[in-house]
Amino acid sequence: MQANINKTNQKRVIIIGGGFGGLKLARELSSSNFQVVLIDKNNYHQFQPLFYQVATAGLEPSAISFPFRKVFQKASNVHVRVAEVSRIDAAANCIQTSIGEIEYDYLILAIGADTNFFGNQNMMKYAMPMKSVSEALSIRNTILENYEKALVASDEQEKQALMNIVIVGGGPTGVEVAGTLAEMKKTVLPKDYPELDFSLMQVHLLEGSGRVLASMSEIASEKAKQYLIDLGVDVSLNARVIDYDGNTVTLTDSPAIHTRTLVWAAGVIGNKIEGLSPEVISRGNRILVDKTNKINGYSNIFAIGDIALMKDETYPNGHPQVAQVAIQQGELLAKNLKALSAGKVMKEFKYKDLGSMATVGRNKAVVDLPKIKFQGFFAWMVWMFIHLMSIVGIKNRLLIFINWAWNYITYDQSLRLIIKPKTKQ
Amino acid sequence: MQANINKTNQKRVIIIGGGFGGLKLARELSSSNFQVVLIDKNNYHQFQPLFYQVATAGLEPSAISFPFRKVFQKASNVHVRVAEVSRIDAAANCIQTSIGEIEYDYLILAIGADTNFFGNQNMMKYAMPMKSVSEALSIRNTILENYEKALVASDEQEKQALMNIVIVGGGPTGVEVAGTLAEMKKTVLPKDYPELDFSLMQVHLLEGSGRVLASMSEIASEKAKQYLIDLGVDVSLNARVIDYDGNTVTLTDSPAIHTRTLVWAAGVIGNKIEGLSPEVISRGNRILVDKTNKINGYSNIFAIGDIALMKDETYPNGHPQVAQVAIQQGELLAKNLKALSAGKVMKEFKYKDLGSMATVGRNKAVVDLPKIKFQGFFAWMVWMFIHLMSIVGIKNRLLIFINWAWNYITYDQSLRLIIKPKTKQ
After folding, report:
1. Which chain A residues touch B153 with a CB distance below 8 Å?
2. CA-CA 20 to 30 A from A186: which of A302, B60, B287, B360?
3. Of the ranges A295-304, A327-336, B52-61, B326-335, which one carries the lowest mean pLDDT score?
4. Which of B419, B423, B424 to mutate to test the interface with A (most CBs of A within 10 A)?
5. Do the domain assignments include residue B348?
6. DSSP string for residues in B278-300
């Protein structure tokens, strides 16, 4: 079956994945001479850095999701398709998808990474990942449902398991979730559940390495840890999780923790796609690319963002899997595709590290910029400003701003709703 | 099993259902000497009059849903429980629920009504009801998914079935959904799907009686019908739907209509509860009550709102099943319960009809007040003002206002997202 996309005499660029990299590339090509086909499983772009606020009832999924069709309403050369891609047929220059076969002149894989459970079957079954708004929403629903259950639980241990929350992984996501939940323990939850004894509740953050925010500076790690401890989070470093059966987390060196809510933010692995030569797949499923993001051994297939593994002098093991790398690669690739199709030479990618940041809670954030590192209230303001400005859409920006201002004034995450679309059986 | 609710020496009032009636009653009793237990399937109150805006991507579910726990944060005598009630044991003064048995001194049924498919099994299977935010969200997701499918559909008839939308029932809900979708056909949908031919799309409104908005004045019905026709809705009066197989609607007197989206808003039936004497269950499952809302034959069980059937001189067949009746009954019952427990005489209910209204589209609404009827732009402003003021929560009010203003200026229902919480299999 052929997918139904009109033929033009423009060269066709297929972009698989509308995350930071894919979206940037498609936008840069939206006024070009290429026909662009953007394929994603969802009909919206997701703003990953704020997933944790959806999980903790601070923001609505729609505030951080933006429909692709709206982005490209005025770009007649961009065709959005909601589909799953099953296979690349590089010899025939086409891909197999759930909506049929689509031919390409250039193919760009911006398929990103998903949660890595490191093969632990029980984790896969019981732990909650947070790599999509849907998963974040699911965490919100689970936490709220568990608190309703805690109200009617008869024995203390069960009650505690329902109230405790364990977060595995001390990267930005883990730190942000842990900090927010610890704040909720002090503010909104006791007000909502006056019948529960909140001295039973504990937020645990388990990190395998020797520090939280290991990708940031020592001072950022140290400060973030202190903020978490001040908020009442039980931070365990060098913690090794052995197993989780849905009720109890077992660890190598510490006593077991009873919890029904385990958020898994301990690592990512590249999403798989069939049809590429096995030699180009490297550590963590990342795809080996040259300095123009072209996949080794292919002439017209590229990979950008989290899925791509580009080694250079500064980053011999590849770039960090963060939004900025994906955005910068998308931006350069748009220029390079234009150059390539005009028979010109492509430019090599050089990552410009703009710095990194994480927020722990109210007035508490850590910021590492190339020339300066700072923490506290001002860092928190910077964090908010940068994230607000990065959000797609003026209305989303406005709604998020109002939500944040509201939550700040009222100490109240107001979206404590267990809502699921009703499905027909 | 006994549900875990602390015993006090206050008399216990159990309210089943937190719709307009149940919520009003619980609020009025929140500073009283009763212990109030409010039981609902959901942890939030739903604002039914705006479900249609959720279904048509204009508002987020959270904007019209409000967590009960937030409403009663400061009311220490009100206990919220998320549970399903299976049975009343009137002899023992207790109810059986999914969280155990709960005893009562007074029991109030505010369980409302659900969609009535009039026994049509195929309708139950394929038609989409809209009596909860979850169901409304499900309609939004289905419409958007069908448009994605239309893009890749190969033959014209399938394409048309995916684009057509049929609404059965010309009450306020049906009229509002039809009007909004007809507007979207002209504004946002062609922009989102430039590859589709919108002359294929038709919005059908099928009404069984001789006029739309049959519960309103003749002039309101007439104007509403004209507005719908002006917007391009295909309005069929005296239409009899025979069957629907998920693809084709068959009618007695008109040609079949191909559609994958059939919204069923053609009638309601009272929600069932086990344990009451069969004699008190009347037409449409409504429960017969006296003029104090006490169920006939019981001394301490009451019913209010859509589920109650109270006959009086003005309303020999019972009151209309609308929010105002439920709210007024909830308000009076709070006073009557206080009177009853103090050994005083209860007051009889007298419905004060404040009028009714419906909106068809941009600048188009119809309003029937007791002394005056009007239509058009001013009616539309009144409709918006009344609905905005009726919404629970200042933040919700603010967010809805921004959404409405935004949509009005940009002609853009911006929540065109297919989001579902991810569930573990």
Report:
1. 4
2. B60
3. B52-61
4. B419
5. no
6. GGGB-GGGPEEB-TTSBBTT-SS
Chain A hits for B60, Cβ within 8 Å: 60, 62
Q: Does residue A151 share a domain with residue A101?
A: no
Give the number of other CB atoms < 10 A from CB of residue A61.
25
Indicate whether A211 and A303 sit together in one domain: no
Distance in angstroms between the alpha carbons of the first and the last residue of chain B? 29
Is A274 found in the same domain as A261? no
Residue B416: its pLDDT value, please?
A: 77
Residue type (1 letter), A312: D
Token reading at A291: 């300095």
- Helix axis angle for B218-231 and B172-186, nearest 10°, is 20
pLDDT in tens, A207-254: 999 999 999 999 999 999 999 999 999 999 999 999 999 999 999 989
Alpha-carbon gap, residue A206 to A177, rounded angstroms: 12
Q: Is the pLDDT score of A392 beyond 90?
A: no
Instruction: Give the one of B60, B125, B152 whose C-beta lies nearest to A60's C-beta.
Output: B60
Question: A103: domain range?
Answer: 12-115+269-341
The catalytic site residues of A sit at 176
With CA atoms as reference, the chain B residue closest to A100 would be B152
- Please report the pLDDT score of residue A161 as a whole number: 96
Contact A153 B4 (CB under 8 A): yes
Tally of structural domains, chain B = 2
Both A52 and A175 in one domain: the answer is no
The reply to whether A46 and A110 lie within a common domain is yes
Min Cα distance A73 → chain B (Å) is 6
The CATH number linked to A43 is 3.50.50.60
Cβ distance of B422 and A69 shorter than 8 Å? no
Q: Which of B266, B291, B321 is the last residue of a domain?
A: B266
Tell me the C-alpha distance between A304 and A109, whole Å: 6
DSSP letters for A71-101: HTTT-TTEEEEE--EEEEEGGGTEEEETTEE
Work out whether strand B364-368 and strand B356-361 pair parallel, antiparallel, or are unpaired. Answer: antiparallel
**Whether residues A203 and A254 fall in one domain:** yes
Find all residues with CB under 8 Å of B393, minimum gap 6, and list them. Answer: A414, B66, B70
CB contact under 8 Å between A417 and B43, yes or no, is: yes
Gap between the Cα atoms of A319 and A301, Å rounded: 19
Cβ contacts of A130 on chain B, cutoff 8 Å: none
User: Which chain B residues touch A184 with a CB distance below 8 Å?
Assistant: none
Tell me which of A234, A266, A298 is where a domain ends. A266
CATH of the domain at B195: 3.50.50.100
3-state secondary structure of A403: helix
pLDDT digits (tens, 9 = 90+) for A291-347: 999 999 999 999 999 999 999 999 999 999 999 999 999 999 999 999 999 999 999
Kindly name the residue from B60, B135, B176, B183 that is annotated as catalytic: B176
For residue A192, the chain B residue with the least C-alpha distance is B69
CA dihedral angle for residue A260, residue A261, residue A262, residue A265, rounded to 10 degrees = 170
Q: Are residues A158 and A184 both part of a single domain? A: yes
Co-location of A134 and A179 in the same domain: yes
Q: Flag whether B382 is in a domain.
A: no
**pLDDT tens, residue by residue, B216-229:** 999 999 999 999 99
Q: Which among A69, A137, A415 has CB closest to B416? A: A69
Q: Is residue B158 part of a domain?
A: yes
Q: Write the DSSP symbol of residue A128.
A: B
pLDDT of residue B425: 44
Whole-angstrom distance, CA of residue A196 vs CA of residue A143: 15
| Assigned domain for B91 exists | yes
d(CA B203, CA B230): 12
Section B376-405 average pLDDT: 88
Q: State the virtual CA torsion across B111, B114, B120, B124 in degrees, nearest 10.
A: -110
